[in-house]
Amino acid sequence: MLQMANYEFIRKQHVLLEKSIRQISRETGYSRQTIRKALRSTEKPKYKLTKPKKLHVMGDYKDIILEWIRQ
């Protein structure tokens, strides 16, 4: 995954220096599809968890505690 600095570098190369996508791809080693994706994106890339984190300390007891609170 590209970091924000890489996105900015790619945009700068394409817009300010008017380099082609193919030339940026050759210089950076990223695929042309990745370069296009970086040029299309306008927001900061975000990390997405594939599955939610488990609550290690309270995980097993959370339901019991919530039931006590409800009562």
Q: SSE order, as H and E?
A: HHHH
Number of strands: 0
Cα-based radius of gyration, to the nearest Å: 22 Å
Shape: rod-shaped
By secondary-structure content and strand pairing, the structural class works out as mainly alpha
Which parts are unreliable, with pLDDT below 50 for 5 consecutive residues or more? none
Q: Approximately how much beta-strand content do the residues carry?
A: under 5%
Biggest β-sheet description: none
Alpha plus pi helix count: 4
**What is the assembly state of the chains in this entry?**
single chain
* Residue-averaged pLDDT: 86
The percent of residues in helical segments reads: 40-55%
Task: Note the gap between the termini.
Answer: 48 Å
Protein name: Helix-turn-helix protein
How would you describe this protein?
- This protein is an all-alpha fold and 71 residues long.
- The protein has a domain at 1-45.
- 54% of the residues lie in helices and 0% in strands.
- The chain contains 4 helices and no strands.
- It has helices at residues 4-15, 21-28, 32-40, 62-70.
- The longest helix has 12 residues, at 4-15.
- The termini are far apart.
- The model has no long low-confidence stretch (mean pLDDT 86).
